[in-house]
Each structure stands twice: as structure tokens, then as C-alpha cells.
């Protein structure tokens, strides 16, 4: 039996919230991404770019995933990623530039060592470059880039 996985994302308009919290968020769309391959998907960061696309990134048992949604919730692109050692990046932040390049910041765990990692994907979500910094024994959590 083949396991089919799903990733759900909700997008709310928070602009309707007043300073005193009298207005509730307005749901604009709900989207499902099928077939990210494994199960246990966990979204760890998201970003809405100036062109109106919503980006999410996270990790599952097959590696790191990145998904791009348009402003109606349709999936425009998605990609699974692991490095040459079959190690996933645990993303903590995601950004996109005007050219459609995507930048992920997070960490990897090799054996007993943590590595701070920055990853650039091009507009086709192919890896442009990756850089790692060995933190020896301490995990530094990235909250934003």
C-alpha cells in the first residue's frame, strides 16, 4: 500500500485585525499539496513575496521541501531537497528575491555536529549554492534572514 501525504496551508488576511482585536482574520484560501513523498511533513517557515506568492518550507522523512503558491492558493512549484550525503536542511527562514530565487536558512545535523546552513535555489527551485558553518556543539537557531 502506497502512503500518500498531504501538506495543508491556510492563508489569512491579518490586515482586518484592529489594534483591539475586534475583527477576526478572514480566510482567503486553503491549499493541499499531495505527494511530497513521505508523511510527517512539518512546515517550519513561510514568506509572502512582493509578487503575491506564498512560500513555505519544512522537513519530512524524505528531506527538505519548498512549495510556492499563487495568490489563489494554487501550487506553482514544489521541490524536495537533500544534500549529497542525504542530509536534510531543517529550515528556519525562507525569503525570495525579485528574480524568483529562494533563500533558506537553517541547520543540518551530521552525526554529532550541527551545521548552520544557507541555501540558494533558483527560480526553477534547483540548487544554486549551499554554504555550511560547523558550530561544533552548539545549535544556533535562525529566526530570520
Quick overview of this protein structure:
By secondary structure, the chain is mainly β. Helix content is 0%, strand content 54%.
Q: How far apart are the first and last residues' alpha carbons, in Å?
A: 41 Å
What's the overall geometry?
Answer: globular
Number of helices: 0
Helix fraction by DSSP (H/I, runs of at least 4): under 10%
Number of strands: 10
How would a textbook summarize the main sheet? 4 strands, antiparallel
Poorly predicted residue ranges: 1-19
* Structural class assignment: mainly beta
How would you write the strand order of the largest sheet? 3-4-5-6
Strand content: over 45%
Helix and strand arrangement:
Elements: E1 6-13, E2 26-34, E3 42-48, E4 54-60, E5 63-69, E6 75-81, E7 90-96, E8 102-110, E9 113-121, E10 127-134
What does this structure look like?
Helix content is 0%, strand content 54%. The chain is built from no helices and 10 strands. The chain has strands spanning 6-13, 26-34, 42-48, 54-60, 63-69, 75-81, 90-96, 102-110, 113-121, 127-134. The relative contact order is 0.15. By secondary structure, the protein is mainly beta.
Key structural traits:
145 residues, mainly beta, 10 strands, 54% strand, disordered N terminus
Amino acid at each position: 500500500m502506497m502512503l500518500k501525504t498531504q501538506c495543508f496551508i491556510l492563508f489569512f488576511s491579518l490586515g482586518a485585525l484592529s489594534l483591539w482585536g475586534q475583527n477576526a482574520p478572514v480566510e482567503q484560501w486553503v491549499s493541499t499539496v499531495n505527494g511530497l513523498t513521505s508523511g510527517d511533513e512539518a512546515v517550519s517557515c513561510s514568506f509572502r513575496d512582493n509578487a503575491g506568492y506564498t512560500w513555505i518550507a519544512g522537513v519530512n522523512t524524505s528531506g527538505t521541501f519548498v512549495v510556492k503558491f499563487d495568490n489563489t492558493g494554487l501550487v506553482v512549484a514544489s521541490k524536495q531537497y537533500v544534500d549529497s550525503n542525504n542530509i536534510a536542511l531543517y529550515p528556519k527562514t525562507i525569503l525570495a528575491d525579485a528574480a524568483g530565487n529562494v533563500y533558506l536558512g537553517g541547520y543540518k545535523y551530521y552525526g554529532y555536529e550541527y551545521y548552520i546552513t544557507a541555501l540558494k535555489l533558483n527560480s526553477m527551485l534547483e540548487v544554486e549554492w549551499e554554504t555550511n558553518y560547523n558550530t561544533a556543539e552548539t545549535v544556533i537557531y535562525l529566526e530570520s534572514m
